[in-house]
Amino acid sequence: MRDVVAQMHRWWGEGEPFARATVVATWHSSPLPPGTSMLVGPDGAAIGSVSGGCVEGAVYELAQEVTDSGRPVLERYGVSDDDAFAVGLTCGGIIDVYVERVDPEGFPELGEVATAVAAGEPVAEVICVAVDGPDPEGRLGRRLVVRPEGSSGSLGSARLDAAIAEDARGLLAGGRTETLRYGYDGTRMDEELTLFVSVHATPPRMLVFGAVDFAAAMARIGAYLGYRVTVCDARPVFATARRFPEAHEVVTDWPHRYLRTEAEAGRIDERTVVCVLTHDPKFDVPLLDVALRLPMAYVGAMGSRRTHDDRLRRLRATGLGEDALARLASPIGLDLGARTPEETAISIAAEIIADRGGGSGARLTSLSGSIHRPRSMRPAAGD
């Protein structure tokens, strides 16, 4: 997404109109999540994808038409007729794609969005993608850019702008992209206006505790998946940037103290994942006592089943209840037969992905039904 915004900004700066096609809703077995975009440039170049290749040709043609006409279009693609393989999704899903022309006159706030995305600052773009009935006020295609503090642009009324700005900031905090519906005057859950809230959030965090070989492999795969990775250990001789070159930062501090400080500073959210690789009760028990009281996406701890049982006993003594303890993934990772640090990191990453997406971790050949589940908007693949 970051690369798409950067390319948009370059073309926008040149003053030539181009088209952006964005997935705004999905059903069933859709290959890509809402917020995924494809650009069709002034020179006809296509960048990005909306379906992994299934409907790109049809979207490309529609994008060229929209660039010429200037009129946005909301188009649905899915397998429903004999022409499915020509313009449909062969995976059996359905997607709504919003196609719009982008130029400095119609999207003067793009520079603001691009600057925020490049700086890693959270920003949401709200677009009116559908109007139920006549649109005499020209609401279709209007947009509002929302930041944690302040907004720019307008969707047509002050009350509507205020309502959606409040809701968009909630989505920003959780890093979620969603489609919402409002009345013309900002009434929530009404059906008159369909607004797509595209969130450009800061990358989710992966906190790896324990400066061991497994942590180096975990930092490498965490960064690959799009997390901002921090490795933390209380021992300065081991917690060095040289040992963890793929980590975005290496911190020397007591793990529980560091996590509590980050939480109090507001730098922990519901997308954050924690991997405890310390193997030492004096580190991991105080740390897990803090972690399991926070609303995070995933908390896992390495160790044998005997270590796990001892850890649970110690954590119960701190006052943690069974609901909190049930959130602990321990022993950490999926059963892949992993042995090396790299293989173990893959098993941990697989568990994080399965937990986030609602997967079972079983082989797809042994399952029936849809391969693609509805995606949570907490994923690491965001900005």
TrEMBL record:
Gene3D superfamilies given in the database record: NAD(P)-binding Rossmann-like Domain (3.40.50.720)
Location of the XdhC Rossmann domain: 206-352
InterPro entries associated with the record: MoCofactor_Util/Proc (IPR052698), XdhC_CoxI (IPR003777), XdhC_Rossmann_dom (IPR027051)
Domain of life: Bacteria
Pfam families in the cross-refs: XdhC_C (PF13478), XdhC_CoxI (PF02625)
Residues covered by region (Disordered): 364-383
Occurrences of domain XdhC- CoxI (ranges): 11-78, 117-183
Name assigned to this protein: XdhC family protein
Organism: Streptomyces mordarskii
